[in-house]
């Protein structure tokens, strides 16, 4: 792969200054392997989603700096040192293509990339920061010594109020229109005089990030036009499927096969539903019990989850058999259903009819029919992005339930009123996975720092905690 060289024009004062932070002004003229196209984008997406989760959880600035540093080191490495810059630039432009396609996608990507840029700018040394500032050709002048002496006392008062070192004679301040640093003004972090803000060198990230955000926002609009007019059609068989899937891709562990709790007993299923099923799966299971039927979307979402938690094909089929028998007003005890065979039960309603209407989809989930694909349980992202219709019960309750129904469901699960308000606050801000995480933490009285990203992760983590509690002395 060709190495990307810096396209910057260094000013004489910044000659020789090395910075690792690109400005992504133009796509690199590279040929990228299809595997790298997807892999690089996925790695960067882990970083952006980690930032999103950290901000949603209200982490403090110093905590966020450590988080971003750790995320970048863990995900944006490359075996070849010379390719690290390439990976950075390529991954950004791939995700720009992925997230240019709708307003909501653009908004999220713009916010996360700007946040990433802010932290990476802070990691640069002062010389590199000044070099980056010159790249934007910002029309701001450095406050001269005479003006600094006049303003020194006022600048010192501001520094003390925000617990910053007092400015010295060699301190660098920029004089800028106050409306260009609204966050600094709102936080009372700058001295204002005659419509200008005096911005210290350690605060210039606000100036640069504003320019970066503006530049990226315009670029996303242009990328969307190119995608819509030409790229999507030209790459419909090669890149388009990857691009359209990346924004909803699941980046965590594979739950296609059961893990620690590989044998889930059918006779214990009702208790396990109450103790360890996330709300989305608990709701589906209860609706199956009430209505004795689920539409295709619900059967897929619940069936693949049950497969992932360790319920064998026969057990999954038996659950559905019992609901069908209830629907047909054939009353049999759970013990009878558990002990008797599949064929003897189905003789009561007709094996052919059951197979046609229900059993085929279960065997299909387990890779026994159709393409014989070993289907993977749905991730939170896939469930959240689904669009259930009238009469459907699949999807994410935190996104698709009304506030009244969600409150009722949380109360039924045993979530206390204070935790419920915290959950509802996250739902209003569309942090659905964090809302589920808070539900998990409230029910298990324990933190879940990794967050909930998959229903089967919720189940596995819940079972682990319950086992530890049962083993611990009273």
Overall mean pLDDT stands at 81
Please summarize the sheet with the most strands: 4 strands, antiparallel
Helix tally equals 22
Widest beta sheet: strand line-up:
1-2-4-3
Helix and strand pattern: HHHHHEHEHEEHHHHHHHHHHHHHHH
- Give the amount of beta strand, in percent: under 5%
Q: Report the oligomer.
A: single chain
User: What is the global morphology?
Assistant: globular
Measured between the Cα atoms of the first and last residue, the distance is: 61 Å
Low-pLDDT residue intervals, each spanning 5 or more residues? 1-12, 323-351
What would you call the structural class?
Answer: mainly alpha
| DSSP summary, beta strand count | 4
Radius of gyration equals 28 Å
Proportion of helical residues: 55-70%
